[in-house]
Design a protein that fits this description.
By secondary structure, the protein is mainly α. It is 66% helix and 1% strand. It has one domain. Strand 1 and strand 2 form a beta hairpin. The protein is globular and about 60 Å long.
């Protein structure tokens, strides 16, 4: 199979975008584990809204495509074993080691506990953590690691379907079919409410995961999205403006019809941005270099580590009398440096840590996109 470097670039850049998004969460007015003493209800919130509409959805679309590539060269049993090892191990490590300090800092910052971490830690197993500021403490999905949990779940429940129904990748994809695919996304966004994570219901992610496996792997997909790029870009920008303004004006509370319209616009915005990102990446990022090789391997540990580091730094600077821009720059720079130093000096060199953070191979393995769980050939 010809390597699709554009997918690797999307994955690496999307991981960096998640990092930026969670830095913004410290400053926007939405509930989060720790909050700055001053929030920004305008610019940072607007950017957060824009990013939230496509950020986690594109990961699930990519993961569906990657499942197709993985099953091209693995049996069902091999696929399951690798998913359990490469998703389950970092998830378990995160739940038991990285998550308790975050829950503790949340409890302290929300005035729900006072005292040391070690005096609080036995309470970590009291009740199930369900929401920010709640009473349960045991976060069985690892807070931000819910993506690994849900992806592992999707991988297991869809495997019988994937083994039975192989996508017809050579069948020509028509332009109108891509727009018809927005309809089930709109329906799910407007009417389905099972479990909300990352701004979307998990069934929305499941639809995108299936789209990735059955549709986005078609040979004609890239040709069609290139042809539709100008139209999709216009739709994306227009729906972003409507979505952001609709959010600030409380459009979803204007009545049943307005709520359905708002949810549909949000879903269309998500889908067209995904198509735009795929098209732009295919046009400009279909190459490899040392930065992609290094970043592709580092992206999984970076994803696992980024929120605990951001929350910890935010916890200590929350009440400092600095302006929001100064705090934001400080938070982003210091958090990024800490994460990359921990990865470069420790995780990448110690075999046990590599396994715990979802990287295949020993510490002497040459840095390559092929050893990352986010990789299009391995996931």
């Amino acid at each position: 199979m010809k390597r699709q470097y554009d997918l690797d670039w999307i994955r690496v850049l999307a991981t960096l975008a998640v990092f930026i998004y969670h830095c913004f969460m410290f400053f926007n007015p939405w509930p989060w584990h720790v909050k700055n003493n001053e929030t920004d209800p305008s610019y940072i919130t607007s950017v957060s809204l824009f990013m939230s509409s496509w950020l986690m959805p594109i990961f699930f679309a990519l993961s569906g495509m990657s499942s197709y590539y993985a099953l091209k060269k693995r049996s069902g049993n091999e696929y399951v074993k690798e998913r359990l090892a490469r998703l389950g191990v970092p998830l378990l490590f995160g739940v038991m080691i990285l998550t308790p300090p975050q829950v503790y800092m949340e409890r302290v910052s929300h005035g729900q506990f006072s005292g040391s971490f070690f005096s609080w830690f036995p309470q970590y197993f009291d009740g199930v953590y369900l929401d920010i500021g709640g009473t349960g403490n045991f976060a069985f999905v690892g807070l931000h690691l819910w993506y690994l949990f849900i992806l592992m779940l999707f991988s297991l429940i869809t495997l019988p379907l994937f083994l039975k129904m192989k996508p017809t990748i050579t069948k020509e994809l028509k332009s109108y079919q891509l727009y018809l695919m927005a309809i089930p996304l709109m329906i799910v966004s407007a009417f389905v409410d099972v479990v909300g994570l990352g701004g979307w219901d998990i069934t929305f992610y499941l639809v995108l995961f299936l789209f990735g496996y059955f549709i986005l792997t078609k040979e004609s997909f890239k040709k069609v999205i290139q042809k539709l790029l100008p139209i999709n870009l216009v739709i994306s920008v227009c729906t972003t403006v409507i979505f952001v303004n609709g959010f600030f004006s409380g459009m979803s509370s204007f009545g049943f019809i307005a709520a359905i319209l708002f949810a549909s616009i949000k879903a269309l915005n998500c889908w067209t941005w995904i198509l735009v990102i795929f098209a732009v990446a295919e046009r400009h990022l279909s190459f490899s270099n040392k930065w992609l090789s290094y970043g592709s391997q580092a992206s999984m540990p970076f994803y696992v580590l980024h929120q605990p580091v951001i929350v910890t730094i935010g916890f200590f600077i929350a009440n400092e009398a600095w302006s929001i821009p100064v705090k934001l720059i400080f938070l982003m720079v210091v958090a990024f440096l800490i994460i990359m130093l921990v990865y470069h000096l420790m995780i990448s060199k110690v075999s046990t840590l590599r396994i715990l953070f979802g990287i295949k191979g020993d510490s002497k393995t040459k840095s390559s996109p092929d050893v990352n769980i986010f990789d299009s050939k391995n996931l």
